[in-house]
Amino acid sequence: MTTSEPPQPQDAMLRQFLETAARVSAHRKKYLLAGPARMASFARRNPLLHKLVCWLKLHSSCSPERLLEEAHRLASNANREMSPQAPSGSASGAPAQQTPAASSPSSAWELYIDGCRRAPDGDALISACRSACGDTFLHERENLTQLYRRFKPKEIGCLGSGCLNDVPVEVFLRGGSRVCLVDWIPGISEKSFAFGLIRPRDTGYACLLCNLPGGGAKFCKNFKAPARSAHVCDNFCLLEGDPPRCTRYETGVQPRFLAGDATLGRATSFAAGAERIVASANSLTECFQSLLQECRRFCWTARQTLDIPDGKLDFVSSVMVMSQFEHEPYEFFSKLLVKRFGQEQILAQEESLRPLMEELRAELFRMQIDGHVREMYRLVNKKRGHVYFSVELFEKHPERKDFFLAEGTPFMLETLGNYFFFDLEALPLDRTLRRVDVGKGHSVIQSYLLTPAPRPRPAA
Description:
- It contains 18 helices and 13 strands.
- By secondary structure, the protein is an alpha/beta fold.
- Among the domains are: 9-78; 198-248, no CATH class; 259-452, no CATH class.
- Strands 1, 2, 7, 8, 9, 10, 11, 12 and 13 form a 9-stranded mixed sheet that branches. It has a two-stranded antiparallel ribbon with strand order 3-4.
- Helix 10 links the parallel strand 1 (155-159) and strand 2 (178-183).
- The longest helix has 30 residues, at 350-379.
- It is globular.
- The chain starts with 11 loop residues before the first helix and ends in an 8-residue tail after the last strand.
């Protein structure tokens, strides 16, 4: 079977883009170092170039041929989108072959991970998550509060901040620290922060921001100094509900909300590869085999760092409880398979595919853990910094009473040990090992305080 060349774009703009791609290939270092301002300029003036440079940042070790192949793919997709829609049937009357809709490498992934926040009942889902899990993660907030008061960090980064169930952000802000809340779902931590600002009182309401050091204008663009006896600012406008909110709240300078992939972009790289491979593969087996190759050849080399300078943070928190890193990217891949091949075909081949499924999931997990630990090490100050990291050690069997070792735990601990030292005396042991129950799931969680090693130890 021969493979045809990608359709050549007829539009002059697309031909020019392919010429630009050749320059990107020849001067890749310059484009890899492109900062936020230049990337924003690309996005405004040449969206295709922006997509290509984003892809290059995720696959910085790719060959020139691979880069140009990606440029052709982007150009071909754009060309199809600009062309008139094909009729539903061919001239012979046979139905036209359906192909998945073309999209940018990460657009479908971005839509997927943002689904909760954009859902019609997104606010209710976030509120329910905060209510259901707030008590469960009280232990984490207490541990972080204790460590905060001991080390008094000025620059804090919370990776995977989500609904803020495990982050005592109020404590950090009251202490005058600068806080960056990072999650790959855009806006989820910002919305969760807004949900926690207004507290009922016997005689009305109080806003957390009115009593923070440095003035409320630092935390809300619409803040207007309140009267001396008031507990809310003069721009306060109540939206009743559970929880009550202020409709005038608008994100200020602090805390900083950052949407990003804290695994060096490896989850995003995996999702982009999955979207491309599923769209062109002829079988389920080919999807798994090709994506495994994609992981090992390209995704492991992704180095898309967060928009935070090296060594900037005095304290980094990352809490991994219940859900494993690979769950969302793998679920995204599974949905692509269902859309392309149908649920019946997948179920019919499930037993024969199981070894490939498990191999891919394990590879995805290791790849993301390695990227996440490397990113934490990059972010934390090497002289005075600390990292708080929680690991799911054991899970309870759903049908028996015993627990089993959570998959990937040995690799996770080994990877942490390659970059950090373990401080087992900063917190009492009875506060670092505990059982956590969320819904019907039961886990044993171990928390660690880590200090960065002077230099990483080579992996075995």
